[in-house]
């Protein structure tokens, strides 16, 4: 006995109907599941799943079904640039983020967004001297070492938040596989320190 699905077609005559064998529906669904699995696996980082012929299908998948997730979001593996300011002889974070905190009017105040542009303007000047943090994984220790190589600069931002002795630390996210080995979610890669003059 063959199991079938009956699909009624809208027409003027109630006698018109098409019988679709259930095996066709199952085969079509299975084919689409396999195609979607291959496309998804082609764009995922290396993992424990390995599909037959996966290497050959990657090139085809990138042409036929490119996935441009970077259009919607920044990669979590990209470094972040954290601003610091020295006050009272101690280094303190000068970050205005997260954007949703009450001091930013829960995201309505855009100063936290403009600070990223200010940091970028400082980093794109010619007199940036980076101090690597390979010997230490502490931001505080690396800031103390980097302070010896401070340079002078002028902050071109119209509404500056980094004046006086300031620094920017390039922070690298701890890989997810090593998350239990580090108490912090980011580790410093390198730090630039300036004596900043604000207009």
Molecular structure report:
InterPro entries: Sporulation_SdpA (IPR023902). This is Antimicrobial peptide system SdpA family protein. Pfam families: SdpA. The chain has 199 residues and is of the alpha+beta class. The chain has 4 helices and 8 strands, in the order E-E-H-H-E-E-H-E-H-E-E-E. The strands form 2 sheets. Strands 3, 4, 5, 6, 7 and 8 form a 6-stranded mixed β-sheet that branches. Strand 3 and strand 4 (90-93) form a beta hairpin. The longest helix is centred in the N-terminal third of the chain and has 22 residues, at 22-43. The chain is elongated.
Which terms would index this structure?
single chain, 199 residues, alpha+beta, 6-stranded mixed sheet, two-stranded antiparallel ribbon, 4 helices, 8 strands, elongated, disordered N terminus
Protein topology:
Layout: E1 4-8, E2 17-21, H1 22-43, H2 54-64, E3 80-87, E4 90-93, H3 111-123, E5 130-132, H4 139-146, E6 151-154, E7 164-173, E8 186-197
Parallel strand pairs: 6-8
Antiparallel strand pairs: 1-2, 3-4, 3-7, 5-8, 7-8
Briefly summarize what is shown.
Keywords: Membrane, Transmembrane, Transmembrane helix. 27% of the residues lie in helices and 26% in strands.
**Could you give the distance between the termini?**
86 Å
Percent range of helical residues: 25-40%
- Largest pleated sheet: 6 strands, mixed
Return the structural class.
alpha+beta
Number of beta-strand segments: 8
Q: How many whole angstroms does the radius of gyration measure? A: 28 Å
Low-confidence parts? 1-11
In DSSP terms, counting alpha (H) and pi (I) runs of 4 or more, how many helices? 4
Q: Strand-residue fraction?
A: 25-35%
String of helices and strands? EEHHEEHEHEEE
How would the global form be characterised? elongated
Which whole number gives the mean pLDDT? 82
